[in-house]
Amino acid sequence: MKKEGFKKYKQYKNVELKERKWPSKLIEKAPIWCSVDLRDGNQALRNPMSLEKKIDFFNLLVKMGYKEIEVGFPAASQIEYDFTRYLIENNLIPDDVTIQILTQARRELIEKSFEALKGIKKAVVHLYNSTSVVQRKVVFNKSKKEIIDLAVDGTRIIKELVREYPETEFILEYSPESFSGTELDYALDICEAVVDEWKPTTENKIILNLPTTVEMYTPNVYADQIEWFSDNIKNRDKIILSAHPHNDRGTAVATAELAMLAGIDRIEGTIFGNGERTGNVDLVTLGLNLYTQGIDPEIDFSSIDEVIGIYEECTEMPVPDRQPYAGSLVYTAYSGSHQDAIKKGLGLYNEEEYWEVPYLPIDPKDVGRTYEAIIRINAQSGKGGIAFIMQNYYGFSIPKFMQKDFSLVIQSIADESVKEVNSEVIYDAFKKSYLNIDSPITLESIEINSKEVSKKDIEILASINYKGNLMNIAGVGNGPIDAFVKGMNNIIEGFKVSSYNQHSLGDDSNAESVAYIQIIDKDGRKHYGVGTDNNIILASIKAVVSAVNKSIA
Ligand code: KIV
Ligand code: ZN
């Protein structure tokens, strides 16, 4: 980077407000949402959407609950004209949804836009012209007065045309495009001139949309501007104040949120923040940010994967793995300590209470994700996460005494592959390492003598195959495991069972049982085995055989 290159940029100052109110406010309700995916978003695609894709996307937006949808710039694009006509002629716009079209302030464009809307019950006509210092100077070479005249003339043409389409209820939206680079008092003047021409009422309000067409300053500066604008504009009760944040500085979501504090009634944005350059504000993040503050976003995000699927299909762009609330990795913990905390949090969470699970700001189920995806394993992971996978995917509640040993097995696989270890690999390793291991010792048959040898002892007679030699063993103990170990001690000396656990592998009475055993060999080393069987005694004995086999392997 060029030394002192930053000196060619200037800092934007916040507005001098006597008493700044927005910092002490809280967001209390959802704004009016307007999706501009099909216009601002579509306009920024490598391959703009076909008619079919636009229909799919429109239906998705309707299904999610968006009530205002900008469908295009019909006077500038034939496909957007056709799409608008298609929606109207095929009655695809539900009664509670209003479509919006964009137009510049030129008679022929406005006339074509009205033609596109013919026959519709209600529509927003979105008129814009660029007002910033740099656009006036570099692009238009027009005075402030000439730019105001352009906006007012456009409004007058719209007013005239409205009379020719009495079947339609029209709402006017005006955007001083490049508001973010416009002198604030001048933006107010031009908006007031449009309002004076349009003459909105409290029943038929005008939408004034203040875009950060290019995001150039911190969100607090925009919030100051909105508060000042909202306090100073005449006829505030006849105005819906709208924000249209872009994301050049990566702070569009914060800009929109502070703008809500500062008095914005409505927000224009796109799903997953698609749009020109770094995009528009992401409506999914904004909506779910409200949701996780206990505020109804009035949008349905319960099938986020369906939204992602249609979005990716239509835009030909992927949703990044770390996209807030939606990315494939955002409900995943690899780190051992995070996994442990999530596991504990999920274990204690009670649906009657507020959501309180460490590292998870939202319950993944609320967006249609499952808990299963939460904990994934790589070389950073700990025993808790591995135990979580075994429990949640395969029903094995690995007891604490063997979790460490299993995590070392997985750790070495992860270290070797330098990749994520998926659940199948974990399960496979579990089977190979512990489950019903029957070599070099194989249990051929077993007889558990129900006759008690003394008041509390049990006798076990078993036939085993050890390296090809068939042997009979017998043992008496205070339970089947004790008896079997005693019998086995005749072949493998000195090992004893040091920990034991068992549970059923399902809910019904026919479910298999699983037993976990830790043995200590004659040299004091620990070994682990797991056995499964319909009979819990046999499962335990198989677990002992597995552990012994591990000790002599
Ligand atoms: O970003 C912008 O300024 C726009 C206007 C047309 C509202 O998209
Ligand atoms: Zn825009």
From TrEMBL:
Mg(2+) binds at residues 40, 244, 246, 280. Catalyzes the condensation of the acetyl group of acetyl-CoA with 3-methyl-2-oxobutanoate (2-ketoisovalerate) to form 3-carboxy-3-hydroxy-4-methylpentanoate (2-isopropylmalate). Keywords: Acyltransferase, Amino-acid biosynthesis, Branched-chain amino acid biosynthesis, Cytoplasm, Leucine biosynthesis, Magnesium, Metal-binding, Transferase. This is 2-isopropylmalate synthase. Homodimer. Its main location: cytoplasm. GO terms for molecular function: 2-isopropylmalate synthase activity; acetyl-CoA C-acetyltransferase activity; magnesium ion binding. It comes from Clostridium paridis. Pathway: Amino-acid biosynthesis; L-leucine biosynthesis; L-leucine from 3-methyl-2-oxobutanoate: step 1/4. One of its GO terms (biological process) is L-leucine biosynthetic process. The keyword Amino-acid biosynthesis applies. The keyword Acyltransferase applies. Residues 437-553 are annotated as: Regulatory domain. GO terms for cellular component: cytoplasm. Belongs to the alpha-IPM synthase/homocitrate synthase family. LeuA type 2 subfamily. PANTHER family: 2-ISOPROPYLMALATE SYNTHASE (PTHR46911:SF1), PTHR46911.
